[in-house]
Amino acid sequence: xxxxxxxxxxxxxxxxxxxxxxxxxxxxxxxxxxxxxxxxxxxxxxxxxxxxxxxxxxxxxxx
Length: 63
What we know:
Largest sheet: none
Helix content: over 70%
Number of helices: 3
Mean pLDDT: 96
Shape: elongated
């Protein structure tokens, strides 16, 4: 999801997306520890998405 798409979504939609991404992140870390994760870049990309969504939520709360 791109940053522009995040800004168009509501706070509730972003919060549910964060929960989904955190589940994905947990699964990626589990796969990494069992040496089954082929694309390790998914971990950092997911962390970045979570951080961006949290930033957008904070910006919407201030506005």
